[in-house]
Design brief:
By secondary structure, the chain is an alpha/beta fold. Helix 1 (about 15-25) runs parallel beside helix 2 (about 45-55) and helix 7 (about 225-245) packs across helix 9 (about 280-305). It has helices at about 15-25, 45-55, 70-80, 100-105, 170-175, 195-205, 225-245, 260-275, 280-305, and strands spanning about 1-10, 35-40, 60-65, 85-90, 95, 115-125, 155, 165-170, 210-220, 255, 260.
Length: about 300
């Protein structure tokens, strides 16, 4: 099997070393051919020098790719264009990786039955979670790129997340690449580029697999454990969902391009926010308010562009 690991990075040269070291230490059968494509998404720091050092230390194992068009989707698509493997694996530039991660992640793809696979992504807490942080809801830790469906492997009925996922290369020729109107770009909090692709595959009837033994640890830094960060993330998620899915099917009534049901949802969560007594519940409701505000903002902007 020929494998390309695609690792995209932007101005993270200091923490990039740990991720590249983890990838370099992967243990695979000698019959596998594999290479790591490090896509530098227009970094202005010492990223090029860091990658060049790994290319020299591991000849043929690492390859440097530069992508000037800003945005994670552009970077991932550049990696896809440069890849020559049968399987393309995606991993983040800030994760902690064990030596068996890659072998476990691609194992379900060897038979050809499964089109893609997602690994388990667990949080690596820099500090204890604050008391106000909701942690129990299904997607409560999504802002920290956590993807944890438990310890049991099996078919996957929801899309994996970009910090640890693998796909048969043929899929990109059949279904297209990552959408460039989605995904992080600079300070933008627009997301969904990874999960949108997975949903595209599932909708087409392709089979995906969840492999919890392919675990990576995603750091939760102090700056992400701030209320402002989480509010911005969920606002961006609201915009992303509208950008991906559009308004709810069957919607008939709009005000300045905004579906009226979004105003009803906003009012509901505002009331829940104001009335909640528990700090976690109160902040969760506030996050829901910001999520709806993001959806409203995206609808408004889309309607204004259409009018112009």
């Amino acid at each position: 099997m020929k494998i390309n690991v695609i690792l995209c990075t932007y101005n993270r040269c200091q923490i990039l070393v740990k991720a590249l070291t983890g990838v370099a230490g992967q243990m695979l059968p000698e019959s596998d051919e594999w290479q790591v494509l490090v896509v530098d998404n227009n970094s202005s720091d010492q990223t090029h020098n860091v990658v060049r050092d790994f290319c020299q230390r591991y000849p043929g194992r690492f390859r440097y790719v530069f992508e000037a068009q800003q945005g994670l989707s552009h970077a991932r698509n550049a990696g896809i264009r440069e890849a020559r493997g049968d399987v393309l694996v995606f991993v983040d530039d800030d994760v902690t990786i064990g030596p068996m991660w890659l072998q476990h992640l691609i194992a379900p793809l060897r038979s050809g039955k499964y089109a893609g696979a997602g690994g388990r992504i667990l949080p690596e807490w820099a500090y204890p979670p604050p008391h106000w942080l909701p942690t129990k809801a299904r997607y409560a830790l999504a802002p920290f790129a956590v993807f944890d469906l438990g310890s049991e492997a099996g078919p996957l009925f929801e899309p994996p997340m970009g910090a640890s996922m693998a796909f048969q290369q043929r899929l990109f020729g059949t279904y297209g690449n990552f959408r460039t109107d989605l995904g992080r770009s600079g300070a933008s909090m627009i997301s969904n580029e990874d999960t949108e692709f997975g949903r595209r595959l599932l909708k087409a009837g392709e089979m995906l697999y969840y492999e919890p033994s392919a675990v990576v640890y995603h750091p939760v830094s102090k700056d992400r454990l701030q209320k402002n960060y989480l509010l911005k993330w969920w606002f961006g998620k609201g915009r992303s969902d509208i950008r991906e899915f559009g308004p709810r099917a069957g919607t008939r009534y709009f005000f300045r391009g905004i579906p009226l049901y979004l105003f009803r949802n906003l009012a509901r969560w505002m009331i829940c926010w104001l009335l909640a007594l528990d700090s976690r519940e109160r902040f969760q409701n506030k996050l829901n308010v910001w999520n709806k505000l993001g959806a409203i903002a995206e609808c408004y902007d889309a309607g204004r562009i259409t009018q112009e």
